[in-house]
Amino acid sequence: MDILTHTEIDQRLCGNPITLEQDFSRVELRPDKRMAVDESGLVHGGFIFGLADYAAMIAVNHPNVVLGAADVKFLKPVKTEGSIVAEASVTSKEGKKQVVSVVVKGKNGTLFKGQFICFTPAKHVLT
């Protein structure tokens, strides 16, 4: 299955898709020192959110998909070592609205959970 959205994203910062199926994606991120907020290697939460958001967008996999809202919980800290994986599943569809559940896991278990409300307008939001 081809990725139809977010085709210009920097996968080094938002994750590398490893599985893409109808209404599902799995994306891996290898956090590095560019993502750290201090010398301990703590990764800024924006990168974790970016990984989860990217996984949600490609689970929907529509060329014009956009994020409308998100309800998320950061459960454990992430360090710049190893890899983390986001799994996104579309849980409901109603017209142009899709709800996507995302879980991010690492070697220390579940790190992040969220529900993303996505919309698929007929044309790009900037046109």
Summarize the structure in words:
The protein has 127 residues and is an alpha+beta fold. It has one domain (11-119): Hotdog Thioesterase (Thiol Ester Dehydrase, Chain A). 16% of the residues lie in helices and 42% in strands. The protein has helices spanning 11-14, 45-60; strands at 16-21, 24-29, 66-74, 84-94, 97-106, 109-119. It has a 6-stranded antiparallel β-sheet. β4 (84-94) and β5 (97-106) form a beta hairpin. The longest helix has 16 residues, at 45-60. The protein is globular, with a radius of gyration of 14 Å. It starts with 10 loop residues before the first helix and ends in an 8-residue tail after the last strand. The mean pLDDT is 97.
Task: Set down the secondary structure blueprint.
Elements: H1 11-14, E1 16-21, E2 24-29, H2 45-60, E3 66-74, E4 84-94, E5 97-106, E6 109-119
Antiparallel strand pairs: 1-2, 2-4, 3-6, 4-5, 5-6
Structural class: alpha+beta
Which sequence of SSEs, written as H and E, runs from N to C? Answer: HEEHEEEE
Give start-end ranges of low-pLDDT stretches.
none
Strand order of the largest sheet: 1-2-4-5-6-3
Secondary structure tally, helices: 2
Instruction: Give the integer mean of the pLDDT values.
Output: 97
- DSSP strand count: 6
Named CATH architecture: Roll
Brief summary:
Helices cover 16% and strands 42% of the residues. The chain has 127 residues and is an alpha+beta fold.
Keywords:
127 residues
